[in-house]
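Example A, followed by Example B.
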Amino acid sequence: MEQKQRARQIIEILHLTYPDAETTLDAVSAWELLVGAILASQCTDERVNKITPHLFAAYPSLDEMAEADVGDIERIIRSCGIYRNKAKAIKGSAKIIIQEHGGQVPRTREELLELPGVGRKIANLILGDAFGGQAVVVDTHCARISRLLGMTAEKDPVKIERDLEAVLPPDSYTDWGHFMVFHGRSICKARCRDCVACPLLNLCAYGSQLDLEGKEAGDCV
């Protein structure tokens, strides 16, 4: 089957399977999402969502975050790992946004990438989920499942992003990242793929080659 046609069929199924798929980071503004995304590096979104209410209660405005003592930020975010680097990145980003962007989170990938602690994955997340654009977020779920599906053979995130952009409908780039997270947490888990129960089985390069005779839903493959 032609790749673009297969991609459209996969997306249709994922829309039906995960109709409420969206970012799992709690945020009410582009700034809050940016901070949450920085904190989420090597940390679960669940943990981040427990930390951010305390962080924003202590520093509710961008100006207050920019003027905060980095040690105080560290104490609040300590439980989410590599907290010293993250505290510096959050404070540094707040300063740059105030000084160079008039207090508004920038809306281009190039400008976002200039902020401390922001890589391409976070920049794409902000573009898609904060500003309503279309950008593929290549996290571990997306990279792993996209390879299993046969959408890419690459391991480099930028190359994976380019492969996906070549076959996905442009209006589904942002949704694809959400679908991969939800699918990776519910069915296509890294250590226990439930291929028998997978709605994408017949469209999956990996799953369609399996001998699942005798397997039942819930069995790891």
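Example B, a separate protein, is given below in the same form.
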Amino acid sequence: MRGLPEDEITARIEAALYSAGRPLSADELVRASGTNSKEKTLKIVSDLVKKTKSTFKAIEIAQLEDGTFVFQIKPAYTPLVRRFAQHPLVPAAALKTLSYVAYEQPVTSKRLVQIRGSQVYSHIKELEQMQFVEHENLGRLKVYRTTKKFQEYFGITDINSMKSKLVASKDERRPPEKS
């Protein structure tokens, strides 16, 4: 049986380092690579370290003192990154409102105000500008739901499936009832 092509092994290691958001051990990288060879994995990681040094100016794959590897911004650029990283696409309060719309949709503006308070109007305005929610008018009442853009951005293929998963995870966290 033939193993994975080297390009695929490299891609898997890159994906693991990029998405982890934390340092990864050699063993974790071996698992991510799809090989059983620590030697081959470390050679590819070493090649990636050299490649990132010659290609990128502000990012690197670094080996830390404990032997783990991390894909990171070079320390000299940390102050610059902090300025941008502290401004998320959707502010926390609006994100909470968005989660209620996603879970309860279709949901009325009256219900949203009951749950989130009157500040919900500014959240909804922001979420509509981002095209994550839309509304329809039913008389004087507005009914909100998420948009296709919301689904694409958050990787949701089926709203009903998302709702059942949320209910299931909420049930798992609930302590068992006493009999």
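On Example B: Residues 54 and 60 are 10 Å apart (CA to CA).
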